[in-house]
């Protein structure tokens, strides 16, 4: 049992280091950059397809480009928020966990299901794989940080309760000696 507490304590200590916050933030910015790059590639594809327009392909490319831009832009304020709050708030980390996990699931679904206006995507590129690996890292590291903060807070609550109980029992002992 004592070894378990030591392992948890080490994990909590590690989670509270600012380095982890900076790593998550860097991963968020990297993901944003990848999505901006993919949106740019879609824009280039739109420019090239202007000479031979296919209304369906053009609309699908526009939808993808818009989606990639929204995702790219969304990662930036969350990353800035993380830098501001460090590990004092779990909210930006929970948002990044849910958002990144949702994007991973959505990516898998677009490879398996024919989604209207997107179609069945059969291409799997290096950029796709890099984005999903980075997003998986965001999910796992942010989850570690959130869980560590929760464990740490519970330990602090328990220790402050124990301190109060110890003070109370010491006070009772002092009163008995005074009688």
Structure description:
The chain is built from five helices and no strands. It is mainly alpha-helical. It has one domain. Helix 1 (2-15) packs across helix 5 and helix 2 (18-49) packs antiparallel against helix 3 (55-85). It is elongated, with a radius of gyration of 25 Å. The relative contact order is 0.13.
Mean pLDDT: 82
Question: How many angstroms separate the termini?
Answer: 41 Å
Helical content stands at: over 70%
Tally the structural domains. Answer: 1
Low-confidence stretches: none
Structural class: mainly alpha
SSE pattern? HHHHH
What gyration radius follows from the Cα positions, in whole Å? 25 Å
Q: Please describe the biggest sheet, giving its number of strands, its sense, and whether it closes into a barrel.
A: none
Total number of strands:
0
Strand content: under 5%
Distinct helical segment count: 5
- Principal-axis shape equals elongated
Could you outline the blueprint of secondary structure elements for this entry?
Blueprint: H1 2-15, H2 18-49, H3 55-85, H4 91-112, H5 126-178
Helix pairs in contact: 1-5, 2-3, 2-5, 3-4, 4-5
Fill in the keyword field for this structure.
179 residues, mainly alpha, 5 helices, elongated
Quick overview:
With 179 residues, this protein is mainly alpha-helical.
């Amino acid at each position: 049992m004592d070894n378990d507490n030591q392992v948890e304590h080490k994990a909590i200590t590690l989670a509270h280091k600012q380095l982890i916050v900076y790593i998550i933030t860097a991963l968020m910015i990297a993901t944003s950059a990848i999505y901006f790059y993919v949106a740019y590639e879609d824009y280039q594809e739109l420019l090239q397809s202007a000479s031979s327009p296919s209304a369906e392909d053009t609309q699908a490319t526009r939808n993808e480009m818009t989606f990639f831009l929204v995702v790219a832009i969304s990662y930036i304020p969350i990353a800035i928020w993380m830098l501001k709050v460090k590990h004092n708030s779990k909210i930006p980390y929970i948002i990044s966990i849910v958002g990144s996990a949702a994007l991973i699931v959505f990516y898998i679904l677009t490879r398996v299901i024919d989604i209207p206006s997107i179609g069945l995507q059969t291409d799997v590129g290096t950029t796709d794989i890099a984005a999903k690996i980075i997003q998986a890292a965001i999910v796992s590291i942010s989850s570690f940080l959130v869980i560590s903060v929760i464990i740490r807070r519970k330990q602090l609550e328990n220790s402050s309760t124990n301190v109060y109980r110890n003070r109370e029992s010491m006070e009772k002992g002092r009163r008995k000696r005074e009688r």
